[in-house]
Amino acid sequence: MAAPAAIELPQSQHQQRSAAHTQHSDLGNCGENPQAQQLALLIMQDPQQQRTTLYCHPLLTQAANDKAKAMAARGIVNHYVGGLGANQRLKALGYQLPAFYSGTFGNQVEAVAGGYSSAEAVWEAFKSSSRHRSHLLGELPFYQEQIHLGVGFYYDWSSPHVEYWAVYVAREASAKDIVATCFDFGCINP
Question: Which of 11, 89, 121, 155 registers the highest number of CB atoms within 10 A of its CB?
């Protein structure tokens, strides 16, 4: 497995345009097609992004692609397609989430959407949702620690939503993690 590629997030719009040009090759680790790569770039370079660095992670990209395809195959946009919650989906691929992330049906890592024909349109929709915006832009300290990114896009004209998008932003477990239980509304320490 390839190591995650680091992309430093610039602070000014001028720096953003320069970074987009010079770091385009790194985006292949964030998404497997141009649509996914464009959404990854929008997430990374949004002026409201609170993280200073995001790493394109191949396991998260794989999870996002698998999720987008699974939603298209079933014709639904849902966090629980295939019977696994988002956290469990990453764990099944070998990505080591902190133990305090919620279990089988938990989701502190995924955003999904369907029916948006462009990366720009789905990004605006995500930003219009307070929960998705908070996660994807790292507006809370919990989410700011999530520095790995993977984006999936799948197109199937015969499926009800036609375009399917999945975004994973997560972090791996570390020895410094406290033992806590986390839900969508926050964490509870023992």
Answer: 89
Question: In the chain, where are the structural domains located?
Answer: 5-188
Tell me the pLDDT tens digit for each residue of 100-130: 888 777 899 999 999 999 999 999 999 999 9
Residue 186 pLDDT exceeds 80: no
Give the predicted TM-score (pTM) of the model.
0.83
Q: Long-range contacts: 181-184, Cβ < 8 Å, 24+?
A: 181/100, 181/102, 182/100, 182/101, 182/102, 182/106, 182/108, 182/142, 183/102, 183/106, 184/102, 184/107, 184/108, 184/131
Q: Which is it for strands 148-155 and 53-56: parallel, antiparallel or unpaired?
A: parallel
CA angle centred on 79, ends 159 and 169, rounded to 5°: 110
| Nearest CA-CA partner of 20 in 40, 35, 49 | 40
